[in-house]
Amino acid sequence: MIKVEVVNTMKAESDRKWWKESVVYQIYPRSFKDSNGDGIGDLKGITEKLDYLKELGVDVIWLSPVYQSPNDDNGYDISDYQSIMEEFGTMEDFDEMLAAAHDRGLKIVMDLVVNHTSDEHPWFVESRKSKDNPYRDYYIWREGKDGKEPNNWGSCFSGSAWMYDENTQMYFLHLFSKKQPDLNWDNEAVRNEVYDMMNWWIDKGIDGFRMDVISLISKPADFPDGKAGVNGYASFAEPANGPHVHEYLQEMRKKVLDRADTLTVGECSGVTLEEAKKYACSDGTELNMVFQFEHMDVDSEEGNKWTDKKIDLRKMKEILTKWQKGLEGVAWNSLFWENHDQPRSVSRYGNDTEKFQELSAKMLATCLHMMQGTPYIYQGQELGMTNVPFGGIEDFRDLDSINAYYELTEQGVYGKEEMLKRLRYKSRDNARTPFQWDDSENAGFTEGKPWIMVNPNYKRINAKEQMGRENSVFSYYQKLIRLRKEHDIIVYGSYDLLLPEDPDLYVYTRTLGEEKLLVICNFSENERELTLPEPFGTSSEIVKWIGNYEDSGAGRTMQIRPYEAMALFHKI
Ligand code: GLC
Ligand code: CA
After folding, report:
1. 229, 256, 396, 422 — which has fewest CB within 10 A?
2. How far, CA to CA in Å, does 281 sit from each of 99, 111, 464?
């Protein structure tokens, strides 16, 4: 037996956390299941499908916003935080869903969107009335500079982040759409309103919060210009990690979060590793974990996401490894390839042709679920749902995509066809088409007309077909989730990258005491020979494995097939 260094034996019991051991499933309610035939998914639809999620084996549901909203940005523009969007149902429907989830041992994490509200929120309706309105200071108002916007910050959804308001002849800040004015977190009254609202939800029994662009809530006092991007404006994330953000989150921890055993995850646009260590510090003073986006930018070009290029795997490995090693022992990662803002991962990082769609979906699942952090599954990812063959701009619903189309074609940055091609590759709408339940009309999502087109491949790719099939993507996800419950090493083992320069293979190990886990993922169609480093292949004993080809298994030298993935559990 070869002697290997024992890195970390068992985890101290205090390091164990239920939210580290969990798998989170994100629901985008509008597109999950419609219960009343109006073409829009709703809460009753979710309740109907909880058994499906139980069957999959996930522990926590992150619900994209279900609050009252004029839907400029599909619920991320909230006009009342304490009532339910009419299209989604009623508060009774919510309570029923929550109780039904809890009955099944599923937790519910709410989306908390408090960097901004809707412009139809009563606070903003008041705020814009006059300069001395009691709500004026709930938002960020500034005088123009030389007859122009106060600075060059851009909105995430095209154009300037400042909107001129005739009424009081000042500008208000909106890092997102004009209908999403930014709240002024430096105002203590705003913070207390937010905490009261959060406590109200906690008292209802919800299990945590996913905090929308929480890294942006504290703006620098002097509002400096930033570096201009392809459309002439600085990035919306320019004010990320502002001067008081940690102070505010620590305050929130004391006034709200410590009242219950919650899961908290911060969507942290523009976060650096050093900052993440503060947001998600294991001392528990702020949040449990961060969603960082550095690996989502591997296929961007200088901040412009509208590219159509494939990723460089070496870059992807470098970034993910930086986060794996960087947070080890001090903070906690969220693991994701997809959410409602990203295109489908099979189309982006894998291969969505009929030949490779299932293989590459499983490969991506293996690669992600075996890393250290809490894995997130976005609805449909567990079926290997793909990008959508959208036609013209009229097929899109997302304001981000539509605004970018007009802005960049009018500025002449791209021609119309070229821009459509980029939208088909990168648009958020790729993730927002109806969940594919079965092969009946509209994929079993609705009996009416769906609010956005259904991906025509639903006859082949759907939950009903996959649930009954042993080698489906769905069944593979079930196995990965089950393994997580059986092997501490998946949750707590330390991570090390092998072969950093290999352009096709992502190979890494996890180590916990006497155990080692070896993960091999082929991100390409190339057949590759791989010689394993000691102690793998020869002197170690494989106690269990999972792979996406039926006969995976290790010898010292292996032929790795197209999109092959395997995780080999060793006792050294
Ligand atoms: C977050 C959400 C995104 C939304 C934006 C504004 O990035 O995930 O969907 O458009 O914030 O709320
Ligand atoms: Ca409905």
Report:
1. 229
2. 32, 21, 41
Q: Of the ligands numbered here, which is closest to the C-alpha atom of 86?
A: 2
The three-point CA angle 282-64-263 to 5° equals 20
Per-residue pLDDT reduced to its tens digit, 238-274: 999 999 999 999 999 999 999 999 999 999 999 999 9
Distance 46 CA to ligand 2 centre (A): 10
The helix/strand/coil state of 381 is helix
Dihedral of alpha carbons 174, 71, 231, 336, sign: positive
* Dihedral (Cα; 415, 421, 426, 430), 10-degree rounding: 130
CA distances, 326 to each of 242, 293, 295, 552 (Å)? 21, 15, 14, 32
In tens, the pLDDT along 153-198 reads 999 999 999 999 999 999 999 999 999 999 999 999 999 999 999 9
237 in ligand 1 pocket by Cβ < 6 Å? no
The 8 Å CB, 24+ separation contacts for 223-226 are 223/142, 223/150, 223/151, 223/153, 224/151, 225/151, 225/152, 225/153, 226/151, 226/152, 226/153
Question: Mapping DSSP to helix (H, G, I), strand (E, B) and coil, where does residue 170 land?
Answer: strand
Q: Which of 341, 398, 401, 432 to mutate to test the pocket of ligand 1 (most atoms within 8 A of CB)?
A: 341
286 is written with which tokens?
A: 């702020």
Phi, psi of 490 (to 5 degrees): -65, -35
Q: Which of 34, 73, 93, 212 is catalytic?
A: 212
- Strand duo 565-571 + 515-522: pairing: antiparallel
Phi, psi of 280 (to 5 degrees): -115, 30
3 state DSSP class of 555: coil
Per-residue pLDDT, averaged over 313-322, amounts to 98
* CA nearest neighbour of 495 among 342, 371, 374: 371
Structure tokens at 490: 């998946």
CB-ligand 1 contact for 341 (6 Å cutoff): yes
